[in-house]
């Protein structure tokens, strides 16, 4: 019972390899126990097998949640098996009824229109500012928000298209099964691709909200304490650059040491990526002391103590000392402005920008304009000359 099937699903990254579409598929939708027994008796898993996937899709109508379960067993060249599991629990059907669908389309369309208008405004600003536009950090934040908003809109429609495609396959299979044996059984349809794109949409929206929150913190420059914090961070850029180089040097050195010491015995240190993750959790305070001491004995305990001492005590202390020195230096600076702008003046300036410009009403002036920064200076010079003339007339 072997059948070749070229899968159109997304590639799956296991612990030992990345698996793309293609392979042999056995559908257990009708009679799982009989199908598995038949595969076992006929040697469906042999020496050439490198991975066996078991895909299960569960749906709860009460909570409207899908659980896409992937069970994987990887076989290495020496014949050892390494199990792995992954569960995606998502709400794929976000809307119920035509009203919610229309409201969702209205919201996403409003976001798209606002993003396009905002992009045009930023484009005009960049054109007028020239090379100075890229020198401002907050202009980069604006560009990132525009790109993330456009990516969110595109990801939303693409994920909905993927879900519609998967749901249509499910309906077709169910209809075919009803026509054959009048039972609720049919060919298995994997919802993993729809669940992955739904998670991608969630990640894009999360990064968008993070950038918008960062932009909102820009308004804190009107507060004296927030302005002091910003100046503190500016003063600490230089010392923190040297500290960061030293920090990452020690971090990579300990990563190599922990990977070589615990990599063969502990799964959490079996690769450099997992070692980095475990080191970050230890710095955050989550220390799995029992597993390390049981696996590696006194050597593992000594290495763990050395790592905690270097990072949690020494390097973190250096970081706090740099921030504290920069804070007192910025606080004692007499030239430090209390705020970057006055809040009332800022809003007044923004409202004045929205007012329409006055048109010239005199026919004699034609295309000549007397408004501008030089007009006030011209009036001052005229008044000075008139006062000089009047003084000469009085003396005569």
UniProtKB/TrEMBL annotation:
Enumerate the spans annotated as Polycystin domain.
11-93
* Annotated Gene3D superfamilies: 1.10.287.70
Region of interest (Disordered), ranges: 354-376
Q: Which InterPro entries match?
A: PKD1_2_channel, PKD_2, Polycystin, Polycystin_dom
Q: Where do transmembrane segments lie in this chain? A: 102-120, 140-159, 200-220, 240-262, 302-323
Highest taxon above the source species: Eukaryota
**Molecular functions per Gene Ontology:** calcium channel activity; calcium ion binding
Localization per Swiss-Prot or TrEMBL: Membrane
Q: Which UniProt keywords apply?
A: Glycoprotein, Membrane, Transmembrane, Transmembrane helix
Give the Polycystin cation channel PKD1/PKD2 domain ranges. Answer: 103-329
GO BP term, pick one: detection of mechanical stimulus
Would you name any one GO CC term? membrane
For membrane topology, the record states: Multi-pass membrane protein
Q: Name one Pfam family in it.
A: Polycystin_dom
* Presence of the UniProt keyword Heme in the record: no
**Family membership noted in the UniProt record:** Belongs to the polycystin family.
What's this protein's name? Polycystin-2-like
Q: What is the lineage of its organism?
A: Eukaryota, Metazoa, Chordata, Cephalochordata, Leptocardii
In the UniProt record, what gene is named as encoding this protein? LOC118431611
């Amino acid at each position: 019972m072997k059948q070749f099937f070229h899968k159109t699903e997304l590639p799956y990254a296991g612990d030992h390899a990345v698996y793309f579409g293609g392979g042999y598929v056995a559908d257990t939708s009708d009679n799982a126990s009989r199908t598995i027994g038949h595969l076992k008796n006929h040697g469906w898993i042999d020496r050439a097998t490198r991975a066996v996937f078991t895909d299960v899709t569960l749906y709860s109508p009460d909570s409207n949640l899908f659980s896409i379960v992937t069970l994987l067993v990887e076989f290495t060249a020496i014949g050892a098996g390494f199990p792995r599991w992954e569960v995606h629990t998502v709400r794929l059907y976000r809307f119920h009824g035509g009203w919610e669908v229309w409201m969702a389309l209205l919201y996403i369309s409003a976001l798209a229109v606002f993003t396009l208008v905002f992009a045009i405004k930023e484009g005009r600003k960049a054109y007028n500012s020239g090379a100075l536009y890229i020198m401002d950090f907050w202009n980069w934040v604006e560009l990132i928000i525009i790109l993330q908003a456009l990516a969110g809109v595109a990801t939303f429609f693409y994920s909905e298209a993927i879900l519609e495609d998967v749901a249509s396959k499910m309906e077709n299979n169910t209809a075919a099964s009803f026509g054959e044996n009048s039972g609720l059984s049919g060919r298995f349809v994997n919802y993993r691709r729809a669940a992955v794109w739904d998670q991608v949409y969630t990640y894009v929206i999360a990064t968008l909200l993070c950038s918008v929150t960062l932009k909102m913190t820009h308004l804190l420059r009107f507060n004296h304490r927030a302005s002091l914090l910003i100046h503190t961070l500016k003063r600490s850029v230089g010392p923190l650059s040297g500290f960061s180089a030293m920090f990452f040097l020690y971090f990579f050195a300990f990563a190599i040491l922990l990977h070589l010491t615990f990599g063969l015995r502990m799964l959490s240190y079996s690769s450099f990526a997992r070692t980095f993750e475990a080191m970050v959790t230890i710095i955050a305070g989550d220390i799995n002391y029992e597993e390390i001491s049981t696996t590696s004995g006194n050597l593992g305990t000594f290495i763990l103590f050395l790592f905690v001492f270097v990072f949690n005590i020494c390097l973190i202390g250096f970081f706090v000392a740099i921030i504290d020195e920069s804070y007192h230096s910025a606080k004692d600076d007499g030239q430090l402005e209390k705020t970057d702008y006055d809040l009332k003046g800022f809003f007044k300036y923004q409202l004045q920008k929205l007012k329409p410009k006055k048109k010239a009403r005199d026919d004699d002036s034609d295309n000549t304009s007397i408004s501008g920064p030089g007009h006030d200076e011209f009036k001052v010079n005229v008044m000075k000359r008139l006062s000089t003339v009047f003084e000469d007339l009085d003396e005569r």
